[in-house]
Amino acid sequence: MIPASRRRLVALCLAIAALFATLAVRVWYLQVRSGSQYVALATSERVREVIEPAVRGPIVDDTGQPIVASRPALVISVSLPALWAQPGGGAAVLGRLARLLHVGAAALRREVRVCTATVGRPCWPGSPYQPVPVAQHVPARIALQVMEDQRLYPGVTAAVQPVTWYRQPVATDLAQVVGYLQPITAGQQRSEGLPVTGFAGVDLAGQAGLEAEYDRQLRGVPGSRELAVDAAGQVTGTVASVPPRPGDYLVTSINSAVQVDAEQALAAAIRQGQAAGNPAHEGGAAVVMTTTGRVVAMASYPTYDPRVWDGGISQAEFRRLFGVAGGEPILNRATQGQYAPGSTWKVTSVAAAVAAGYPLHGSYNCPAAVTIGGHSYINDGNPSLGPMSLRQALVISCDTVFYELAYQIFRHDHPGANVVTSPGAPPQEMQKMEVAWGFGRPTGVDLPAESPGSVPTRRWLYYLWKDNAHRGQDWCRYGRQNGTYVQRVEWDNCRYGNIWTGGQAAIAAIGQGYVTVTPLQLARAYAALANGGTLYSPRIGEALISPSGRVVRRITPPVAGHLPVAGSTLAYIRSALAGVVTSGTAAGTFAGFPLRKVCVAAKTGTAQVAGVQSTSVFASFAPCEHPRLVVVVMIPNSGYGADVSGPCARRIWDAIFGLEGRRAALPGGVIPGLPRLDRAGRMVPPPGFAPAPGGTGHGRAGHGRSGPAGRAGRPGRHR
Amino acid sequence: MSWAGPALGRRGGAPGAALRRAGARAARRLLARGSALRQADWLLLGAAGALSLLGTLVIWSATGPLLAQQGASQDTFLLKQLLNVALGLILMLVVASMDPRRIRLYAPLLYGLSCLGLLAVLTPAGSVVNGARSWISVGGGFQVEPSEYAKLSVIVLGAMILSDLAPGRARPGARPVALAAGLAAVPIALVAAEPSLGVTIVLLLLVVGQVVLSGVRLRWLAGMAAAAGLGVAGVLRLHLLKAYQASRLTSFLNPAADPRGTGYSAAQAKIAIGSGGLHGTGLFHSQLIAGNFVPEQQTDFIFAVVGNELGFIGSLAVIGLLALLLVRALRIAARAQDQFGMLVAAGVAIWFAVQSFVNIGMTIGIMPVTGLPLPFVSYGGSAMFADMIGIGLLQSVHRRRCVFRD
């Protein structure tokens, strides 16, 4: 061998030795040095955690009848990753499926798109790993076809799943209170500490109403299974398993019969107002128990069928629900509608006058008009009626008595603070009383969204002016001294918006001007008036009952305060309101009503709102002596309280007590006790409240519900 | 079979006796003084045999559970590989018993046959596996991978040309180097066209190694290195690499970029090896292997199974046995009687070394993923036969060693 070859052979030996040393060191590093780290990686690869969503608890009414529940149904779902793996993104599969389901292929394609910032509804708002339900309640024949011919329908599954089921008509009549379910958002998942596995997106979460308020309790606790899987994602065994715990039953104090009647009466009144040529298009009503603060019914018009949320809402439905053009049926007018209370407000003004030292049994003049600050404030529709008692002022609803009282109080009420320059300005005496009656702040009802209404305290006035003089509505920019009506008001507001005037005090005393309330606020204030002064934070939920039948939590409406009014004053006002129905402004409305059987006390309200028709308000309670229930109806843009809201309230009273040919929903106004869940999982109505014949069957075993995609996503290989 | 016909005819209906006699004669030849077996390098043979048996066991463990899941016999791959090893040993014995000079005579024939084979895979007769046209189906479910034999032919032909010195010259001149390079370029181009990046790299390094070892002048080497550098630059500039090859190279540089593709294999192999720890899970006890997480786990990624199931100890055993094998091969090269024997032995050593390093390196994340089997350990007939023939070549050179010089 030549010497050069020998030298180079030695070099080759060294090179190979170096290579193999490298291998040995690297293998040592991987296996010995960082072995534990790779063991963890390997474990996370081999084991998949699959979240099993819990069956969602039902929402039931006061007798245990379901309002929202779940029913097993055959659901056709599409697995997006499997679909995308098909040639052409699975367009052929979707086309076949569309023909099978008798839907449009284009519509089906839109439904299985994943929602993004640019892809609008209809689209799939959940995780792409979650099977997308495209058809519920399909006939078994179609389900079989899909299951048997998987070559034609790859990625399409048919399975029995619990789907959300609504008892009609109550679910539609209570749509805004019930709320709706949508796939849980990533933010909710984080904030609630739910397991984030990429598959937990199968969970639906309540996004509004009771579904959102009691979401945690209704949802239950999802179970999990740790599955051993191979590289293809095929399950080879179960490592550990925690079964899901179904959600609790939410028993509400909503009485389905009263609710349905209230909604129908409200709709009828608004349609009647429309027929009379008024632009009425919305309204709210609330029925509240006086002594407990529980909500018996809460109606909002317009309403919508909550089934539109099933399996993803369409863009058109979404616009109709949330759009002004569609009347915004998503809003709950009973808690989010803010309307002028009109003369129903005068009960607070009487209380404020008495608190300010004016005698309860004194005599007050009811002139045709009162002049305050150069303006003449006339008594609506009435001539001069001379001196009268406060009772008579309420019965016939004389405005000028309250103008005068308000002006008198105004003149001695910190006059130096009327030009409001700081939010710390002292509240006016009348407004202080109104705030004490729970106005101008949310009631705290167990619903996630609620409007506060407005009471024009000096502080409120200060912020109104500060927020709108040079920003917001920007009065100073748009106002004109000699422009349109609105421009003139803006010009005025720009200069004097922070000044509390006698005129404002006068119109605030009859529930107009800056004063707005929600129907629920008015109802709880009248409940406090009726029960002797206890102001409740109303509650719709009554109890949470576990699937085993244990009462997990009784929900008691908390006391929000006490009216700073003597019991005798409240009794005086109550008796005056009884007179309203027999001989006052509501006498016509209640003509022929069997007041002997059930004495109803009420106050009408007709709030004139600039530029549109009056807001028709009716606040009532019954029975007069020992009031049990309050019924409040508010319908803006519709006319006199006695003409529109009054008849609506009368119909609701009929339904509650079973008068004028109606079946009593709550005989004698007695509220049912708590229904209970028996061992078989059936809701047993409280004694005396057997479900109405013809009512839909309910209370099957395992009668919970979960979202349309109740099944956990198939385990896949994820890294 | 053609030779057996007349033989049987002459013996007149006593085939059994004829076969027995033939067998006895073969056995005598095998065990005779100076025979292949008597003069074998037993350590080399032992290392190759141990690797083969270890490989067979690991293949069994890597495929058994999967086959059982599919309802097939879980011994299928075990039996096939045992057959491969047995046939490989016979081929090795045949080659080992040949004189290197005779092998040298066969070199052009071997070269021609392997070039034809490589051409054949590029025709429609070749079948595509993993994007490369590397296989020829020969019927009965058997497939041949000509590129495995191309390595042998390049080794033998290169050794033949580079050892054929002109009278009076101590080193090969320009002509043999150019001839060797030019002849090797044909199979290299054909393999690159399959495309098989791994074999191309092995063949290139083989040729370079043999040229260097043949003793050419250093300035020649420098010139060739410069030319190679220009060639690499040209490949990169002209985008001659296929997309999947480029992706394999880049995913080696950045494994997180494509976790589902090539990087996935590399990452899975690394996890399998790393999680094996010191002792491993034991054969048939790895859920990772039973779950088929590592792609190609009985062939190119067999080392991942070794690492996972046998741990650091098993990995070190495989690396150690390969090192022992190479030490013996290089020792045979150093003691070879002539330049041809030295170049053949060194060529086989370079082949095994490069292929082992690239294969193990890709499973532990220090080399790009290229389709190369681990010598003696990976499943596959063609590879096993070629590896065993390589051992046969070494044994043949060993028999003709120079006993007087170290």
Task: Please tell me about this protein's structure.
- The complex is a heterodimer of chains A (719) and B (406).
- By secondary structure, chain A is of the alpha+beta class.
- In chain A, strand 2 and strand 3 form a beta hairpin.
- Chain A folds into three domains: 48-252, Penicillin-binding protein 2a (Domain 2) (Alpha-Beta Complex); 256-300 and 524-669, 3-Layer(aba) Sandwich (Beta-lactamase), CATH 3.40.710; 342-522, Beta-lactamase (3-Layer(aba) Sandwich).
- In chain A, helix 15 crosses helix 17 and helix 15 crosses helix 18 (429-436).
- Mean pLDDT of chain A is 85; it is low at 196-201 and 694-719.
- The longest helix of chain A is centred in the first third of the chain and has 31 residues, at 3-33.
- Chain A contains 25 helices and 25 strands.
- Helices cover 34% and strands 18% of the residues of chain A.
- Chain B is mainly α and 406 residues long.
- Chain B has a three-stranded antiparallel sheet, with helices on one face.
- Classes of the chains: A alpha+beta (719), B mainly alpha (406).
Summarize the structure.
Chain A is α+β, with helices and mostly antiparallel strands and 719 residues long.
Features:
heterodimer; A: 719 residues; alpha+beta; Penicillin-binding protein 2a (Domain 2); Beta-lactamase; 7-stranded mixed β-sheet; 5-stranded antiparallel β-sheet; B: 406 residues; globular
